[in-house]
Amino acid sequence: MSIDLIDAAQGAMLGTLVGDALGMPAEGLSRETLKERFGRLDSLREGSLPSGEFTDDTEMTVGLCEALVDRGEFDLQAVARSMAHNFTPWRNYSPHVYGIMARIRQGMSWESPGTSSWGSGAACRVAPIGVLYADDTEVADHAAAQAKITHDHANGVAGAVAQAVAVAQVTVAGLFESTVVKEDLLERVTRAAGDHSVAMADALKRIQDLRPQPSSERLSEAIARMYPCDGSAVGTVPAALAAFLLSGSFEEAVITSVNCGGDTDTQGAMTGALAGAFYGARAIPERLTASLANEGRGRDHVVRLGEALGALTRKRSGNRLELDEL
């Protein structure tokens, strides 16, 4: 079986959108409140935005991906401009991002004391870099650079590096779905994140203490006991990775992730990117995609972007990634 880079790239992009939209209605709710309100959140629901709508997590991912596809490579200034151009205030951005986007739109530097955020916003958008630089050690450097547009705290940067390296690894793994691949992934991600934050590396190591559970519900419960899932990079990035590593399908992974409670849309987006890149877009159930928002930069645009990103990755790697065997 060969690795299909187009399917992996489309999976990462569409998976981000699905996880984001799936988690959006429960954003900010504790696990207990989520259960009271939704039971098990396993379908698109209305929340702070209409059912199927996406938040800042997808919008920033799209902006970053558009810059990569347009430039053919990572260009920090182009990424910043693209995210600022796409900025839609009502998509639930963190308050500190508003001023940053305004400065970029005015041609000013984004650097200010307000960018020292320890949140997971830089991690949730970084998947396209993980795909494009899947076979390149530069993936961590580029992930860290783009993080500092909005999150220059060590934990925020480390979260972006962890997510990008994880996406890179599962893109290379393609459709092989090996437990060996998953075990190796955690070691590589922890080492890369540790270059920026000991706290992030320690949080990632704790994934090893989690065990597969008899149901997705039980797995959500176990992850939520381990991590606060609170929107901080340290509390959310490892939880999103754990949901992927301990699940056996795209659907199980994203449903597990969003039902942990907390920053459900961001966590769902990160798990969706990982599971989408690993299993491919073709593994994402139609019931989770058919009703996604599709105007402007919605579902169809995201799928087309994924195709363009996959083609660029194939061209950039000179087909090194598309092998008959690993």
Note down, in words, how this protein is organized.
By secondary structure, the chain is mainly α. The protein has a single domain, classed as ADP-ribosylation/Crystallin J1 (ADP-ribosylglycohydrolase fold, Orthogonal Bundle). It is 60% helix and 0% strand. The protein contains 16 helices and no strands. The termini are close together. The relative contact order is 0.21. The mean pLDDT is 91.
Question: What would the keywords be for this entry?
Answer:
326 residues, single chain, globular, mainly alpha, ADP-ribosylglycohydrolase fold, 16 helices
Low-confidence runs (pLDDT<50, min 5 residues)?
none
Strand content: under 5%
CATH architectural arrangement: Orthogonal Bundle
Largest sheet features: none
Q: At the first level of CATH, what is the class?
A: Mainly Alpha
C-alpha geometry: globular
Compute the CA-based radius of gyration: 17 Å
The first-to-last residue Cα distance is 10 Å
Please identify which CATH superfamily we are dealing with: ADP-ribosylation/Crystallin J1
SS-based structural class?
mainly alpha
Number of continuous helical runs = 16
Q: What's the domain count?
A: 1
**Multimerization status:** single chain
DSSP summary, beta strand count? 0
The averaged pLDDT comes out at 91
Helical fraction equals 55-70%
Q: SSE order, as H and E?
A: HHHHHHHHHHHHHHHH
